[in-house]
Write a structure and sequence with these properties.
Blueprint (H helix, E strand, L loop, with lengths): L3 E5 L6 H8 L6 E4 L3 H9 L3 H5 L2 E5 L7 E2 L11 E3 L3 E2 L4 E2 L4 H5 L4 E4 L2 H14 L5 E4 L10 H4 L2 H8 L5 E7 L5 H5 L6 E7 L2 H7 E2 L4 H14 L3 E8 L5 H15 L5 E8 L1 E2 L1 H10 L11 E2 L5 E2 L2 H17 L7 E3 L4 H8 L6 H8 L14
Parallel strand pairs: 1-2, 1-3, 3-8, 5-9, 9-10, 10-11, 11-13, 13-14, 14-18
Antiparallel strand pairs: 4-5, 6-8, 7-12, 15-17, 16-17
The structure holds iron/sulfur cluster.
Iron/sulfur cluster binds next to strand 7.
């Protein structure tokens, strides 16, 4: 939960700053010229990373408005572009890579929306005629702050008229009010990260239950949006097959399979440094207890036959519940996993793009979609 807002004086007059402050009447606000007071505050806390998650920092972004997702070296990426409209997240999942990637950091909202939009325009012009996926949920949660920022509807209205972009808002929250108020479009995908109930309960601090997320997804589908889901990180735990199977059964009972644009699968992975952080910040977490081996990128992962077993279990549950036609992809896996589990090997990024680009009905797009 955000407990204090710091406003960069250079960003004080931006309309988005004013909107956020108006929507946060009970949160103390400080106007500052430098980030120093925030850094001091985090440094003085017992848990600087946790402290950063309670601070909202409103500032301006200086360029780099759309970037390719860095993925991980030596595995097949999913050719995704990221918009960093927010950095960091008020939720606190034990496995979150942002702890390591950002270190102690306030939850940052870049408020110079007009300038950002010009950057997006330029990017889209360069990719004219080519399909691409883009989203705001890589360095933060796309909707966690929407009750304060109310930017989801603006992003949707911008991207719904750019049909070569599949714009994704990715979340673990149920803050869908702004989405429900926006006009739906087939190239706007609202997606949720899901996990088994025990993993979500133990490892996703501050996130609503998986069932609440599914209810929110159902509302969004009723409103007319397509949705996506991310089973990532899949975690081996006693009864994992039944536990994930129950979520998949519920998911496909609640959401028509043809409204699901994609489902991604990724198994638990972390660098040795992140493992140390999890042990320190989340002593009750069971994630570091699993037997993991270093992968080609140096990250610790389950031994490959176990990863394949995990993926096979999920794919079987999807098929059993009528989800066999849903486009699936892996986050950070190698060609062998793609071939063995998904029966395709997108050796090149273009092939991943092709595998994921769904047919778009009524989008007005004259692009070739596969
Ligand atoms: S919701 Fe996502 S960004 Fe936020 S803490 Fe969890 S994993 Fe990290």
């Amino acid at each position: 939960m955000i407990e204090r807002i710091f406003v960069d004086r250079k960003a004080a007059s931006e309309p988005l700053t004013r909107r956020i402050l108006k929507n946060s009447p009970d949160i103390p606000i400080e106007f500052v010229t430098r980030r120093r007071p925030i850094d001091d505050r985090m440094a003085a806390a017992e848990d600087p990373i946790g402290e950063g998650k309670k601070i909202l920092w409103l500032t301006r972004q200086k360029g780099g408005f759309v970037k390719p997702c860095p993925c991980t070296p030596k595995y097949i990426g999913c050719h995704y572009f990221i918009i960093n409209s927010v950095l960091n997240c008020p939720l606190d999942c034990s496995y979150c890579i942002l702890q390591l990637y950002l270190g102690p950091s306030p939850v940052t909202v870049f408020v110079n929306l007009e300038e950002m939009r010009r950057g997006w325009d330029a990017f889209i012009r360069r990719r004219s005629g080519r399909f691409f996926r883009v989203g705001t949920g890589e360095l933060g949660d796309s909707l966690a702050l929407d009750p304060l920022t109310r930017t989801a509807a603006e992003f949707i209205s911008y991207f719904r008229t750019r049909p070569n972009a599949f714009f994704e808002l990715k979340t673990k929250t149920v803050h869908i009010q702004g989405v429900l108020e926006a006009e739906p479009a087939e190239n706007i995908v609202i997606s949720w990260s899901l996990n088994s109930v025990p993993v979500a309960r133990r490892e996703e601090k501050g996130a609503p239950s998986v069932f609440e997320r599914l209810e929110a997804a159902r509302e969004v589908v009723k409103r007319g949006f397509p949705v996506g889901f991310h089973f990532d990180p899949l975690v081996l735990h006693p009864g994992w097959e039944e536990a994930y199977g129950r979520i998949i059964e519920r998911l496909l009972r609640m959401i028509p399979a043809d409204r699901i644009r994609w489902i991604s699968l990724g198994s638990l992975r972390f660098s040795p440094a992140l493992k140390g952080m999890i042990e320190e910040r989340f002593p009750a977490s069971r994630l570091p207890l699993g037997e993991m081996v270093p992968g080609r990128d140096g990250k610790l992962r389950y031994f490959k036959p176990l990863r394949l077993e995990l993926y096979r279990g999920i794919v079987t549950a999807l098929r059993r519940n009528g989800g066999e036609g849903i486009p699936l992809y892996f986050c950070m896996e190698d060609g062998e996993a793609w071939q063995k589990i998904l029966k395709k090997n997108p050796g090149r990024k273009d092939d991943v793009e092709r595998a994921l680009s769904p047919r778009v009905k009524g989008s007005g797009s004259n692009l070739r979609l596969y």
